Amino acid sequence: MPKLADDLSMTRNTRLNSLTPSKIRAFDEKASKIPGIIKLTIGEPDLNTPEHVKEAAIADINANDSHYAPQAGKPELRQAISDYLKRSLNVDYDPTSEICVTVGATGALNDVFMTILNPGDKILVPTPVWALYFQLIKLTGAIPVQIDTSKDGFVLTPEHLEKVLLNEGKGAKAIILTDPSNPTGRVYPSDTLKKLAEIIKKYQLFSITDEIYGELVYEDNVHHSLSEYIPERNILISGLSKAYAMTGWRLGYIAGPKEIMASICKINAFLVTSVTDNVQAAAIEALNNGKNDPIKARKIYEERLKFMKSGLEKLGFEMSTPQGAFYIFAKIPDSFGTDDEAFANELATKAKVGVTPGRYFGKGGQGYVRLSYASSTENLKEALRRIEKYVENI
Questions:
Q1: 120 torsion bin: left (phi>0), alpha (psi -120 to 50), beta (else)
Q2: Between β-strands 143-148 and 327-331, what pairing exists: parallel, antiparallel or unpaired?
Q3: pLDDT, tens digit (0-9, with 9 covering 90-100), for 320-373
Q4: Annotated domain spans of the chain
Q5: Which of 31, 139, 180, 346 is the most exposed place for a label (fewest CB within 10 A)?
Q6: Maximum CA pair distance of the chain?
Q7: Taking the domain 6-49+293-393, which CATH number applies?
Q8: Cis? peptide before 128, omega within 30° of 0
Q9: Torsion over CA of 44, 50, 51 and 53, rounded to 10 degrees?
Q10: Among its keywords, does the record have Manganese (predicted)?
């Protein structure tokens, strides 16, 4: 095996020195080594990709669709995305100039950050939040300014946003909002989004919305988007990973004003050239003919949410009611203190249930743990039984 030459040992992008590997993934890998553990650590649907979607990809392969696709995505897919956004959010995006197909929502985030952020720029990040945001932002040389929303029920209020913009976030260039939220499952009401939009416009910010869980909203809650209120400022990111159980297919997309989308599509082309042909064929089928697929998934997840929420609350866990996505962000019982990392480690080793420490999601997460109910119902029942036994024994 080759060893890097000594004189090259420090020859690398120095920004990498400030980045750390994902603690969420590291904790999951450690937990995975415990025999018999039930993992509620990763946002990975246990459901299968719908059959008609898989068949579309197979048919595309058999048709020898194996050449370079258009760099912004196949025209049929961009049209399908445009149609989907119109019927789901009543927003209009030109498929030829305002939509770009990406390698997952993570690829979309990278495209957007690399396009709009320069070294030293500030971007506001309401927390707790999916921690990869911080690393991708830092990779551009920009500065993530965390906004702790834990005292506001994990929903950024307009008053809090304006206070930050007048203080530590003064001069910020952009804000990113995850709705529905990972890890809290909270959903932003339309009146809150309208007021946030007014402040974003007042302070001349870009807004970036990560709406990957937009199809997974429960009970009487409705998913809305900042694109409904400030389409001239908002860059919408989404994909098929969660609602269609297609995490491994890596299909995401970006929609925004054509002036900024031209640059975003340019970055996307530099990074990936184009998205895999048969994956795009599957996505076309999902968006055009799979309207009921997310509805079926939503019913399953909603039942699991009710079961897990009821069981955890009986054991002394507190939470702001999850309204979407497939996570519960629960405050650990007072008798266990506030060290969520220690609690998660003990729960993994002694009860053989894997949950993710809340501190990994940024400010406001300490004392909480995230549980994913995207696991099977059987696993969730057994996990709750083990948690109950552990808590009661302690």
A1: left
A2: unpaired
A3: 999 999 999 999 999 999 999 999 999 999 999 999 999 999 999 999 999 999
A4: 6-49+293-393, 51-289
A5: 346
A6: 62
A7: 3.90.1150.10
A8: yes
A9: -100
A10: no
The answer for residues whose C-beta is within 8 angstroms of residue 313's C-beta and 6 or more apart is 319
Strand partners, 236: 209, 255
Residues near 75 by Cβ (< 8 Å), separated by ≥ 6? 95, 96
Residue type present at position 70: P
The stretch 304-315 carries a mean pLDDT of: 97
List the helix and strand counts (H, then E) for the chain: 12, 12
> 51-289 is classed in which CATH architecture?
3-Layer(aba) Sandwich (3.40)
| Tens digits of residue pLDDT in 191-242 | 999 999 999 999 999 999 999 999 999 999 999 999 999 999 999 999 999 9
Q: Give the Cα separation of 389 and 385 in Å (integer).
A: 6
CB 140 within 8 A of CB 113: yes
Q: Do the first three CATH levels of 6-49+293-393 and 51-289 match, i.e. the same topology?
A: no
Of 275, 217, 285, 272, give the one whose Cα is nearest residue 249. 275
- Amino acid letter for position 326: F
